[in-house]
Specification:
The chain is mostly beta strands and about 475 residues long. It has two helices and 42 strands. The protein folds into two domains: about 110 residues, Immunoglobulins (Immunoglobulin-like, Sandwich); about 325 residues, Pectate Lyase C-like (3 Solenoid), CATH 2.160.20. The strands form six sheets. The protein has an 18-stranded parallel sheet that branches. The longest helix has 19 residues.
Length: about 475
């Protein structure tokens, strides 16, 4: 009997509490919103976006009733909205009550229509929340829609130029067949789906400019977190692969970032130039940023940074790096590889290291040793030729080695070291700036003769000798404007 009385009392109390909640929305009642404007980044037309959301808050001491939610003038512009589980289709089919001190979640998606436009198109729709007291409160939904050229398993079978008129969206990979040349004009943007990459059996000529680089990136344009777009997260697409058949490739003013691997060069004739990379960035890779197997490559005035494995990995070959910044500050895995690793074997296969020369370069990272030379001890007859000249190196100081000349050592006793060589990184937003600070030993460390003859301007166009000296790496120190 006592138990039944307790249950009945609880029911009566619950009913009394429910009766206390009133939704007689007063004339002065308003809702609060987590955003005034919900912004999507550039969205690929014809493709649905991931779901975004915002919050609706009732901060008053009594319930507020929402009589209707609708698009102003009935124009949704491709936006789709769900409020507290109710889909908005020309307005609510019934009102929504928001209890006191409570909130509602509003989900928004967008599928912009294809408009046959080369330029991005701004899309704006206004969502109106009409309270039962007649008050209307707007939330603006906005995005930029971009038409693209869609490529499904596309093969370049003849000499062909890809223009910057519209971005390209690549599914199932893009292949340059043997014997043909693919040319990419300045300002061209490639979006690659997660399982897609660029395979080159022929020749690739990517000719960007300082103001209009060629960009290769993943196709996700949404945010992983509030201040972290997926475009700054590695493993978003596969990368660029030059097969053993490919020679004469050039990447100039290119921005290749956030892939599974950056650039891979398969074994080839080391007497023939396989790849020249200049004025470019290869950044934020889930594998190596640049790996080369028995290949002849030249890299100049370029930034190669942040990899789960190595920023640069050389398995033999003939490689020259001039005025490059190899920076290993990969934020996603503490077991990251070094900034640079070079050797003369691959497993039990000899890969003679004909030459690995680094001139006026920076090689550094979080670790206290970011430079690894791996010589095949069982076969000392296999070539293992390396050289570092006027570089800043994050490794143990070497005093007697004719292959290391006029180098600075990035170590704890310096005025700044490792990440201190650069302006402060924004790890929350995954933004990295590899220009130099004034106290870095890279400032003035470069061979000026090489700088003037090869790269008299840095990757950002700064004249290297404007202060009478040249700095190691791809960025010249510039005194900040206060």
């Amino acid at each position: 009997m006592h138990r039944l009385t307790t249950i009945l009392l609880a029911v009566l109390l619950l009913g009394a509490c429910m009766e206390e909640e009133k939704f007689d929305t007063g004339a002065g009642d308003r809702l609060a919103f987590s955003v005034d404007t919900l912004k999507f980044d550039t969205v690929i037309s014809g493709m649905g976006t991931p779901t975004a959301f915002f919050m609706v808050y009732n901060r008053s001491d009594h319930g507020v009733s929402i009589a209707n939610v609708s698009f102003e003038n009935g124009e949704s512009k491709g936006f789709r909205v769900n409020v507290d589980g109710m889909y908005i289709n020309e307005g609510l089919s019934q009102s929504i009550d928001c209890p006191k001190k409570d909130s509602l979640r509003v989900f928004v998606e967008l599928t912009p229509e294809v408009r046959d436009s080369d330029d991005p198109v701004e899309l704006t729709a206004t969502l109106l929340f009409t309270l039962s007291n007649g008050v209307q409160q707007p939330v603006v939904l906005t995005a930029w829609s971009q038409d693209v050229v869609v490529l499904h398993g596309f093969h370049v079978t003849r000499n062909m130029t890809f223009s910057s008129r519209r971005p390209y969206l690549v599914y199932d990979s893009l292949t340059v067949d043997e014997g043909v040349t693919m040319t990419i004009a300045a300002g061209t943007l490639f979006y690659f789906h997660s399982d897609a990459g660029l395979r080159v059996d022929g020749t690739l000529k990517a000719e960007g400019s300082m103001t209009d680089p060629v960009v290769m990136r993943g196709d996700r344009t949404d945010m992983m977190f509030e201040n972290q777009p997926y475009d700054r997260v590695s493993n978003q697409w596969q990368g660029v692969h030059f097969t053993g058949k490919s020679y004469g490739n050039r990447l100039n003013w290119c921005d290749i970032h956030s892939g599974k691997h950056g650039v891979v060069c398969d074994s080839s004739d080391v007497t023939r130039m396989k790849l020249v990379v200049e004025n470019s960035v290869i950044h934020n890779m889930g594998g190596h940023c640049l790996s080369a197997f028995s290949s002849k490559i030249m890299v100049g005035n370029s930034q190669i940074s942040n990899a789960a494995k190595c920023c640069v990995k050389l398995y033999g070959g003939d490689a020259e790096f001039i005025h490059c910044t190899l920076a290993q500050f990969y934020p996603f895995d503490g077991m990251r590889g070094p900034a640079l690793e070079y050797g003369n074997s691959y497993g039990d296969v000899a890969c003679p290291l004909v030459r690995a020369h680094f001139i006026n370069c920076i090689v550094t990272g979080y670790s206290d040793d970011e430079v690894f030379g791996l010589q095949w001890k069982d076969h000392p007859e296999v070539d293992f030729n390396y050289g570092f000249y006027n570089c800043l190196l994050d490794t143990d100081e070497v005093l007697e080695d004719a292959s290391i000349v006029q180098c600075q050592w990035d170590r704890s006793g310096n005025p700044v070291k490792r990440e201190g060589n650069f302006p402060k990184f924004n790890l929350d937003a995954l933004l990295f700036d590899f220009s130099l600070v004034e106290k870095s030993l890279a400032v003035g460390a470069a061979d000026a003769t090489v700088a003037v003859s090869h790269y008299p301007r840095d990757r950002r166009g700064v004249v290297r000798m404007s202060d009478g000296q040249a700095d190691a790496g791809c960025y010249e120190f510039v005194m900040p404007v206060i």
